[in-house]
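Why does residue order matter? Because the sequence determines the fold. Keep that principle in mind as you read this record.
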Amino acid sequence: MQELLGHLNKVRGVGGTLLVSVEGLTMASQLRTGADESALAATIGELLGSAQRTAQHLGLGVPATFQAITDHGGLLILAAGPAYVAILTDAGANLSLLGIEAKPHLERIAARLAL
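Structure:
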C-alpha cells in the first residue's frame, strides 16, 4: 500500500497522502508534512461522518469526494473502495484535475483493499 501511495505522491500538486478507514483509522500514510497521522485520520473520519450524515439528510447517497481549498494548500478526500484517500495538496493545485489524475491510483488501491 505504501508503494501505491508513493506513486500517487508523485502526481503534480500532491503534498502527501493518507489512506483512512471510514471510522478515521490510519491504514497507510505517505505524508511529507510531518503531521500527526493519527490525529489527521481521526479528524478526517469526523469530517467523513459529518459529510455522510449531511448527504443522507439531503437524500444524496454516499459521498465519494470532499475537497477544501485554503490559501496555503488544499485537501482532497476521494473514495477508494471501502476506504478513503486524503490528498494534501500544494497551494495553487487544481483539485479537479488532481481528482482525474488520481483516479487510476485510487482504482489500484481499491483493488488491493478488496484482496
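Residues 37-57 form the longest helix (21 residues).
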